[in-house]
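so the lab meeting is tmrw and i was supposed to have these ready like two days ago... anyway. pasting both below. for each one the top line is the aa sequence and the line under it is the structure tokens. i havent really looked at them closely yet so no promises
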Amino acid sequence: MLKHIFVIMMLAIVCEKAWCAAVMVDNQELFKQALTSAEPGTEIVIRDGQYKDWWVQSGCSGTEDKPIIIRAENPGKAIFAGNTMFALSGSYVVLDSLHFDECVVTNGTVRLEGASYCKVVSCVFVNCTGKKHEQVLVIWKNASHNVIEKCVFDHNAAKAISIRIADPAQTNGAPQHNIIDSNLFKDVPSLGDNGRETIQIGYDPMKYGQVKSYTVVENNLFLRCNGESEIISNKSSNNQINNNMFIDCYGELVLRGGSYVTVSGNTFMRCKGGIRISGTHHIVKKNLIAYPQESGIRIMHGTGDDEAAFYRTVTDCQITDNQILYPVDSGIHVGIQYMMDWTRKKHGYQDRPPHDNLIANNFIQVMPRVEAVIVDHAPDNQVMQNTVYVDSDVVP
């Protein structure tokens, strides 16, 4: 009896290994066939080689314990170019160690279209190009709980990642609870215009700024991300942007709209600026902003107090415990762009001062003749207990 039980157990192990055996593919047709027959635990391995113009859409799904894994035979050796697009709409699928080089971006080289619990890990996107407002990786529709981690986005003439909140949010739900963690973003060329944020969380703050995205952006490194004035552009609510590092970037982390966003523990070194704020109920704390070419933290005048305003008035925000070292213009500027004229776009004037915000316990170190805190037509804020140190001996 024990002998029979042992044989049955061995057969089960052999069957399990055979069922989970890797499927090797080296062309698009074989890959699509493998996706069609994929079951939880399937591993699809793309052989080392150069591939072009793959256009793949898949709704296959794994499980939490047995995800479907799509990976390169050797990390970075399966290289894709041309009009290539991988679109995933299932759940528990892992895209691992693929290399995208000089791809032509058309609404995403990788798209998570309503996908859930999927991962894009250790992939490289380099020298990809697209028309204005294109994005290399897009998360949209009701995509949720996906993770983008340990990827490299290098010298792409397009947005790197877009959390797309647009018209489908009204019918299919918005992307929520997605995580962008431990990635490298570097050498983004300037567009010379609006439309090349490195990361965009949301799309139109006047329509969708109050959509709760619950996006987490953390532990990423941004080097020379010069696509436009907004490195990260937040246009939705209830997000976390924490513990990222920005070095030599010609831009700022911008809370363009939305509410209840936390920006904490980030480091900015020699960037154009640090953090720019619109919207309500944000928490900006414990960030280090060193040698900004302009101001460390800027708080905007609004064009209106309601959710549909072009620039919503900044209220009920907490800007505390930040360190700002040697800014060129000012440490913290409360009330920028006073009375800026947007009437040509039918948005009125920026005539609503920020109010009921707490700006406290910040440490600001400046050179002589540089103002630590500027309050411009915005008297109804608590600016208190900030430490200012003027040092004429430090050479940036």
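ok protien two:
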Amino acid sequence: MHVRVAPILAIVLAVLLGALLVPGPPEVGAAPGEIQGDVPAAGGAAAVVWGGGDAEALAAAAAELGCDLRSVWTFLAGRPVGFLVGAPSFVNATFLTVFPSSEMPASTIAILRCEAVAAAPRPSATPSATNTPAPAPATWAPPTSLQQPTVAERDAAIPAYARSSWDHWVDADGDCQDARQEVLIAESRIVVSFETSALCRVLAGEWLDQYTGQVLADPGDLDVDHLVPLQNAHLSGGWAWSSSQRRDYANDLTDPDHLIAVTAAANRSKGARGPEEWRPPLAAYWCRYAVDWIEIKDRWLLSVTSAEWSSLLIMLATCPSGAPAVVPSISPTPTPTVSATPTSTPATSCDPSYPDVCIPPAPPDLDCGDISHRNFRVVGSDPHRFDGDNDGVGCES
């Protein structure tokens, strides 16, 4: 994409005065795939001429200049048509719907809103992180106090973690953008471009990896990380959740710190480890990481181990104004644990579908109101139908 600067005051006046004053396409020699016009270095509005070509290329070319599309003129039989006004997302979506992957007319006029600082270039075929790490955002400030999650050691009898039980990257609102794409769109520091006019998958943007401080332009270099990993959530109490609760946790977009875009290398280095075993390489992010970790655990009623809590306190001590005050856990009661198998009852009187508790086989048919056990493992045929949602946990409280 090439950019040439030339005065086009006549075009600006024509757009402002309306269709009657524009007898036809502007007499400006913008070549196909070329934007021609004045783009103010200090930011603000700009009227430019697009030499014709793919609609997505126009959107990408504007973004490359650090600009958003605000309105568009095209020409049909020498007359201006298709004047669109709205927020950048509206113009992009509408314009790409009108001209999906097709050649737009030559001499299309686009009104742009440009930032004072130009956006980073779109990624090449093999994009990589910038060499100079960007500083951590300066707008965030830690809270004055934090609620301590329940401190409890993990029960060795907790059912094994299975990632397939945590249905993630769902499209909850049915707009074709799954949870991963929603995070990429929300966290990009510039307006993203998409792979196709369907606007389902992100092609390019600009993301700051909070773990390392690197800035990236290609979503293929990014993982969307559960700040508190799914396996850690499972071991901290999530094992007893229903399938819908696990799905909600795995795709939570209500908290902007629950899912974050980071480099694939950093995310895979972290894995499922807690702060007692792994901390972000960028120490300037430790304060926010610890705050977010604690708030997620508290909001989802997940426990922390003593080693995990000690590490979080160390990270909180790095907060610029000192560690937030910690409100002790209200109840010392740990998260639900798996009951041990009773030894006083002969094994022959216990149904094997419920290996961690002793429940007589049918008949008679029992329901949850007939027994005292809660949140126990269910395997096999489940003759009493205690596991109504088939998530492997019976009589969930």
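from a quick look at the 2nd one: The radius of gyration is 28 Å. The CA atoms of residues 151 and 309 lie 7 Å apart. will dig more after coffe
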